[in-house]
Design brief:
The structure holds 2 protein chains of 2 kinds. By secondary structure, chain A is mainly alpha-helical. Chain A contains 19 helices and 4 strands. The two termini of chain A are about 25 Å apart. Chain B is built from 20 helices and 2 strands. Chain B has a two-stranded antiparallel ribbon with strand order 1-2. In chain B, helix 2 runs antiparallel to helix 3 and helix 3 runs antiparallel to helix 19. The chains are: A mainly alpha, B mainly alpha. The interface between A and B is medium-sized, with 35 and 34 residues.
């Protein structure tokens, strides 16, 4: 093999385009005296979609770059598509909010672009080093956006909390990575996989290292018992930022989780399965029961997100291609259900101020029937009631669980879904059965309306044509197993 | 045989009507009137189409008819199809759903005064889901319809219901959801056992006994709640009392039948051994349901609650007959479901008539209504007698066939059931005496008006059906005969085979 001075950069072209363009946009923002937040936001959103186009043009072929530290495959393509769409939607949803809150600075979309670069790196990580670098790149941007409303006490508090707990989990992860390196002598996923295949039983040191990394990742996906930061950060961060947090970083961290468990340590499935099963059960149970008592809708969405991670982890616990397919389908459906729900929350603005109590939704069905209908669709979807999309997300993970003989896990899953249905349905009850309060401010921003309509249609009519999504997920899952 | 996709038409026509309602715009009064008429015509045409199903139905075969099959999702091993078809068991449930939705629309013509558009829309969506459920021959499709029903019904109870509507709506929703999700897991397990989500495949598959027991229990959880059986019936009185009249009609008339239909379509033919194994359990629960809820009904002071408890008792006969698994008993169970569907719907409408006038369902508030409302008293009497199973009405045919069929299997059970019929007579006649007879003491009762033409139009078809079913049941029994025979034969075969297998072990 001829030694070249430059590593093979071709697989990382989309990431490089995104990073370079983000810097250009940053310069553009600085050059324009008036800020130009709206222009740069639109450009950023278009850029994300353009990068998505490049990703699709490159296709889901398996390619290795940077001396094996970076990998692209169908799995990565699928996850990156979710992340890019989620990020672009978050930028659009923030436009009006930031203007109203007078925090419409051009740095916001640019920071999200940098976070997106980090997330794409995480998804494509094929080495513990890449994993960590991607994660930190993402985190640095996220710390700032969480406290973006710098005059708001809640927002800065959320940013600080997120920083401290995230730094802690990154530390745990790094420590785990060092243990793994110490006991195997390598950080590459491919080499680790060979190591795992060669030794039937992982040594205690490797096992401890693996557990530390799992703990760090569980923090990032906010799986119980490492979820404590989630409700506070969700509640405190500006709402568009919460919408962003709920989708893109979660999907990125989960795909990292999946790749890390399946590619290097797939051979140790029986060792780590019990950890994932525990995380999954704890998340589903806590997400279901703790959500019941919430009055703040953003906090409620935090517990909802915790619960949903639990369901997605069922697929990982199965550890089969079917299970991973379930995770992928679940995350894709979760993307538009959650974006839609947050679009509704962003429309909850009365007399120029955001309101966040679920009681504020009282009687929306009579003042704004369209908004209420969308809300009902999202809530039924989040609860997983057929024929909405949420049902299919659950269907595919339960399918994998039954196939892997994790009957107990599946039974707990369906039972907690009934408990969680209570609080989703309670929101519908408030919106439809209660006496109306004053209407929310109108008109709803056009970008918001766009996100709302598209996600509502996808959530409701997914059952008509689930083929492409499920097929894509199946191909992506297969690529992870090298088939 | 027509080549029209008749089942798809019957199923989705109401949805189309719903779409039209969604598009109506303008002043509220105009929208309300348009919504009412659209709903009326849609349900009328749909009922007409369902009659066409009956006419075209071939009664000489147990095969599924009007079958439609289309690819839906075929990816990565797990595929499901759009597969619809009916046999003699499901045929009449479709007719029942179509008829009762039509009746509901007419019955709600004046009593629903606010958010009429949404109300009619909810009923049309509900009709699609109900009919689709009875036609579905793919598990995933079935499940979509089965659980989808919760959404419109939840809204109907919650938006247009009585004072405790929120509590009732939640109880209904969560109870039924809890049962349904366990069935979902069983469906997935069936998929891994048979390699297909097709119901017809599962019907011809013989499951191992240990698996049968688990699957049976999971399905039982769902259907027992839906039916409902004692002791998971407690959502029913709440939901009935709080739902608007037409909501109760659909709830009692069709939604409860989903449970009975489920037992006959899935539990019995797919898990014959488990059904046999659990028959004592079913018999005990049915007997308790019949006797206990009859006694509870006797003590009610609210008219709707009384009718609701009587529903639980009547459904006890259905489970008894279904699991007795003789030809007569199974046919009886189906007739009992149809008859109860009509009678309970009519009884709820009867309560609704006076509720619309006085806005109370307290039995004690009424008395002596016969003086002012002779036509009402007649209709009430007719359905009361049907409910207690007077010969010549449909109630008699259903209960008699069930008892006759069960007698051969368990004399004790049949005896208990027959004894309890006496309690049914007691609470119904007691109700009738208190409401219709006696002295009219209250002043506001004197100004009551008798049935309007619209109300008579609502009751006329229901009365016709119970008399038809009571006097010439063969029009209904003939189309279901082949399917029932096939079902019972299959169950008997499976049990004989298992018996043989057991015997060969010794």
């Amino acid at each position: 093999m001829p030694q070249t001075a430059l590593p093979d950069l071709a697989p990382a072209v989309p990431e490089m385009v995104l990073a370079a363009s983000a810097m250009v946009l940053l310069l553009l923002g600085v050059a324009r005296r008036d800020g130009g937040a709206r222009l740069i936001s639109w450009l950023s959103a278009l850029l994300l979609l353009a990068v998505l186009g490049i990703e699709f043009a490159l296709g889901g072929e398996r390619r290795i770059g940077f001396y094996g530290m970076f990998v692209t495959d169908a799995f990565g393509l699928f996850m990156k598509a979710i992340v890019l769409i989620g990020s672009a939607a978050a930028i659009l949803m923030s436009l009006r909010y930031n203007e109203d809150q007078r925090v419409d600075r051009f740095e916001f979309p640019v920071l999200i672009l940098f976070a997106a670069v980090g997330m794409m790196l995480m998804i494509s990580a094929n080495d513990l080093i890449t994993l960590y670098v991607g994660l930190e790149l993402q985190n640095l941007a996220l710390y700032v956006v969480a406290s973006f409303e710098r005059d708001s006490e809640r927002s800065t508090e959320a940013g600080l909390k997120y920083f401290i707990l995230s730094a802690l989990s990154s530390g745990l992860l790094l420590y785990g990575a060092s243990l793994v390196y110490g006991f195997t002598g390598t950080t590459g996923f491919a080499a680790l996989a060979r190591f795992a295949a060669a030794s039937a039983q992982p040594g205690i040191g490797l096992l401890v290292g693996m557990v530390f990394i799992v703990v760090g990742l569980a923090f990032k996906v906010s799986a119980v018992p490492f979820h404590m930061w989630t409700p506070d950060v969700y509640e405190g961060a500006p709402t568009p930022v919460t919408a962003f947090f709920a989708v893109a970083p979660k999907v990125a961290a989960l795909s990292l989780f999946v790749r890390f468990m399946v590619t290097p340590f797939g051979a140790y499935l029986s060792e780590w399965r019990q950890i994932i099963v525990f995380l999954s059960i704890a998340s589903m149970v806590l997400g279901a029961f703790a959500g019941v008592a919430q009055d703040n809708i953003k906090r409620l969405m935090a517990y909802s997100a915790i619960g949903h991670v639990g369901y997605a982890l069922i697929g990982l616990a199965a550890g089969t291609a079917e299970g991973i397919r379930g995770v992928l389908v679940y995350m894709a459906i979760y993307l538009f259900m959650t974006l839609g729900a947050f679009a509704v929350i962003l429309a909850m603005r009365r007399n120029g101020r955001m309101v966040e109590g679920i009681g504020d939704l009282a009687g929306v069905s009579r003042t704004q029937p369209g908004l209420a209908l969308a809300l009902a669709i999202f809530m039924f979807a989040l609860a997983g009631i057929p024929p909405t999309a949420g049902f299919f997300g659950k269907l595919y993970v339960f399918l994998a669980a039954i196939d892997a003989h994790l009957i107990g896990l599946a039974v707990i899953g369906v039972l907690t879904s009934v408990v969680a249905a209570f609080y989703y349905v309670r929101i519908i009850k408030i919106a439809y059965f209660d006496e109306p309060l004053a209407a929310f401010d109108r008109p709803i921003a056009a970008e918001l309306k766009g996100v709302l309509v598209v996600s509502a249609l996808l959530s409701l009519f997914f059952f008509l044509y689930p083929g492409p999504l499920v097929g894509g997920a199946a191909a992506a899952a297969a690529s992870l197993f090298g088939r | 045989m027509s080549h029209l996709p008749l089942l798809t038409l019957v199923t989705f026509l109401p949805l189309l009507g719903g779409l039209f309602i969604l598009l109506t715009k303008g002043e509220e009064a105009v929208v309300a009137r348009n919504a009412r008429y659209i709903a009326l015509w849609t349900t009328l045409i749909d009922f007409g189409l369902s009659l066409l199903l009956w006419i075209e139905f071939n009664p000489h075969t147990a095969e599924f008819q009007f079958v439609e099959k289309a690819r839906w999702v075929t990816i990565g091993g797990f595929s499901f199809t759009y597969h619809m078809g009916i046999d003699g068991i499901s045929l009449f449930f479709i007719l029942l759903s179509a008829l009762l939705t039509l009746v509901s629309v007419i019955a709600s013509w004046e009593s629903i005064t606010y958010r009429v558009k949404e109300y009619m829309l909810a009923f049309l969506v509900l009709e699609t889901l109900m009919i689709g459920m009875f036609c579905a021959l793919d598990f995933i499709l079935f499940y979509l319809f089965f659980e989808g029903v919760l959404i419109p019904m939840f809204l109907i109870i919650g938006v247009w219901g009585g004072p405790r509507r929120v509590y009732a709506a939640f109880k209904f929703f969560l109870y039924t959801l809890l049962g349904a999700v366990l069935m979902l897991l069983a469906i997935l397990a069936i998929y891994f056992e048979t390699g297909s989500t097709d119901i017809t495949v599962a019907l011809n598959h013989s499951f191992p006994f240990a698996l049968q027991k688990w699957l049976w229990l999971a399905f039982f959880a769902s259907f027992a709640v839906k039916l409902p059986m004692w002791p998971v019936h407690t959502w029913l009185p709440d939901a009935h009392v709080e739902a608007p009249t037409a909501g109760s009609v659909i709830l009692a008339g069709v939604l409860l039948k989903m449970g009975g239909y489920g037992f006959l379509r899935f539990s019995l033919p797919m898990f014959p051994l488990a059904s046999h194994y659990f028959t004592p359990l079913i018999f005990v629960l049915s007997a308790i349901a019949i006797i206990y809820t009859s006694l509870v009904a006797l003590a009610q002071t609210d008219m709707k609650k009384l009718v609701a408890y009587s529903s639980v008792a009547h459904m006890g006969f259905v489970t008894m007959g279904a699991f007795a698994a003789t030809r007569i008993a199974v046919a009886g169970a189906i007739v009992q479901m149809l008859s109860h569907g009509i009678i309970s719907a009519a009884l709820f409408l009867i309560v609704g008539v006076v509720y619309d006038r006085l806005h109370t369902r307290e039995i004690a508030r009424y008395g002596g209504l016969v003086e002012r409302m002779p036509a009402y008293a007649f209709v009430f009497m007719a359905f009361t007698l049907a409910a207690v199973g007077l010969p010549g009405t449909s109630g008699f045919i259903g209960e008699f066939l069930v008892l006759l069929g069960t007698f051969k299997v368990s004399t004790l059970e049949a005896t208990l059931g027959a004894t309890a019929m006496f309690l049914g007579i007691a609470y119904m006649l007691y109700l009738y005496r208190r409401v219709i007879y006696g002295v009219m003491t209250r002043a506001d009762l004197r100004s009551l008006l008798d049935l309007s033409l619209r109300e008579k139009l609502v009751f006329a078809p229901l009365l016709l059906v119970i008399l038809w079913l009571g006097l010439y049941p063969d029009s209904f029994l003939a189309p279901m005969r082949a399917s029932v025979d096939h079902l019972v034969h299959q169950v008997a075969l499976a049990r004989a085979a298992a018996h043989l297998h057991e015997a060969s072990l010794f």
